[in-house]
C-alpha cells in the first residue's frame, strides 16, 4: 500500500477485508492466476492409515471427529491432534471457505507459524494430522506420510489419489487450489517481468 511492494504471490485470492483496504488506498490491483497446487493431508509415519476419504478430512477439520477411532477407515485410537497454520493464513482460509465451505472458523488443536512448522510438528507427534501445500513436500525427505484421498475416478470406481501434478491438473485430486499474483496496475518493469 505504501508502494514498497510491487508484486505479491499468494495461495488464495484476496479476501474481502484485503480488497477493501486496497480500495480505500485507491490501489488498483491486477490479479493473475498462475498455478494450481494441492492440499496434502499429512500424518506421522507411525499412523496406520493408508488412505483417507474427503468426508473423514472434513470431520477432522470441523472437529466432528476428535478420536482416530471415529474415522471409518482408521485402525487406530487416541485423540486427533489437528495441526494447522493460524487464522489469517492462506491454508486456513482455503480449507474453511473454498474447499469445505465451513460456516464456523476452524479450531485446530495445534497452531503453527508456517506450513513447514506443521510438517516438522507432524513428524514428531504420532497422533497429529496436518494440511499443507503439496508443493512443500517435494523439498522434504518425507519426514511425514502423505495420505492419498479416496474419491470417485472418471470410470466411477473409488480410487486413491495423491496431490500430484497430473491428478491436480485433471481435477482428480479433490483438494486443489489456485495460486495468484497481484500487481499494482501501474506496475514496475521488474514485477511485469516476473509475472
How would you portray this structure in words?
With 195 residues, the protein is α+β, with helices and mostly antiparallel strands. The protein contains 7 helices and 9 strands; from the N terminus they run E-H-E-H-E-H-E-H-E-H-E-E-E-H-E-H. Strands 1, 2, 3, 4, 5, 6 and 9 form a 7-stranded mixed sheet that branches. The chain has a two-stranded antiparallel ribbon with strand order 7-8. The mean pLDDT is 89.
Q: Determine the N-to-C terminus distance.
A: 19 Å
- CA radius of gyration is 18 Å
Helix content bin: 25-40%
Return residue spans where pLDDT drops below 50 for at least 5 consecutive residues. Answer: none
Q: Count the E strands.
A: 9
The description of the largest β-sheet is: 7 strands, mixed
Into which percentage range does the β-strand content fall?
25-35%
Q: What is the structural class?
A: alpha+beta
Helices and strands, in order, run as EHEHEHEHEHEEEHEH
- Average pLDDT confidence is 89
Number of helices: 7
Shape: globular
Q: Could you provide a short overview of the structure?
A:
By secondary structure, the chain is α+β, with helices and mostly antiparallel strands. The chain contains 7 helices and 9 strands.
Task: Outline the secondary-structure elements.
Blueprint: E1 7-10, H1 16-24, E2 29-43, H2 54-61, E3 81-85, H3 90-99, E4 110-112, H4 115-124, E5 128-133, H5 134-137, E6 145-147, E7 149-152, E8 158-161, H6 165-169, E9 176-184, H7 189-194
Parallel strand pairs: 3-4, 3-5
Antiparallel strand pairs: 1-9, 2-5, 2-6, 2-9, 7-8
